[in-house]
């Protein structure tokens, strides 16, 4: 009898690009890919933090390269990806939230959030895909979205709108690049304990709202995301594209 074997989660010889890599979810994703054997290019705006992080990776025996870059500068991003790629894996974890009631949202806040969460994400993902297509390589492109790409939330009209846009963009890219064996998916976390969510957890009424909505009864941790990103980056998810992996503790179940 011949039994099936589980596809490999091993990412040895794969090159990964991770944005927002110096903190929170981005840092966790970078670690997960490096642990699985990938050579990870770490992207963020602050050069000193990036180089310190690359050194910390090397001390663990992991392969990492620092690439200081503001991905909201789409021209610089396309140039950097073209020069440094092709990348087999993309994890776009860079994101911005400026929460306020819709009636109080300023145009500056709207532009800042949409420029990074939608425009920069679009051109970054496109740049990595172009490199793969030019080199006739398959790939796995992962955008860190949010449960707010599937529901709405208090004070989150703009943020939720950007994540809904990211979900639609990802599905359309998955359709377009499927013939090239390029997979495009999102990971949609609930509230994860990171510097980005401190403003919510510091408000008792908002924290109570979060804890009531998460059916598993706890706030998410960065480690809750790490297995998912390694899965989507690997051959274990070879038939998954255009999908949203909700890591929300049951928030969107009702």
Rg from alpha-carbon coordinates:
18 Å
* Structure annotation, total helices: 8
**Number of separate strands:** 7
| β-sheet strand percentage | 5-15%
Number of domains: 1
What is the fold named in CATH at topology level? Rossmann fold
- Mean pLDDT over the residues: 95
- Shape assignment: globular
Roughly how many Å apart are the termini? 44 Å
Helices and strands, in order, run as: EHEHEHEHEHEHHHE
* Helix-and-strand structural type: alpha/beta
Helix content: 40-55%
What is the class in the CATH system?
A: Alpha Beta
Write the CATH architecture name: 3-Layer(aba) Sandwich
As residue ranges, the low-confidence spans are: none
Main sheet overview: 7 strands, parallel
- The CATH homologous superfamily is named NAD(P)-binding Rossmann-like Domain
Q: Going across the biggest sheet, name each strand in turn.
A: 3-2-1-4-5-6-7
Describe this structure in words.
With 254 residues, the chain is α/β, with parallel strands linked by helices. It has one domain (15-249): Rossmann fold (3-Layer(aba) Sandwich). Helices cover 43% and strands 15% of the residues. The protein is built from eight helices and seven strands. It has a seven-stranded parallel beta sheet, with helices on both faces. Strand 1 (15-19), helix 1 and strand 2 form a beta-alpha-beta unit. Helix 1 (24-35) packs across helix 8. 43% of the residues are buried. The model has no long low-confidence stretch (mean pLDDT 95).
Brief summary:
This protein is 43% helix and 15% strand.
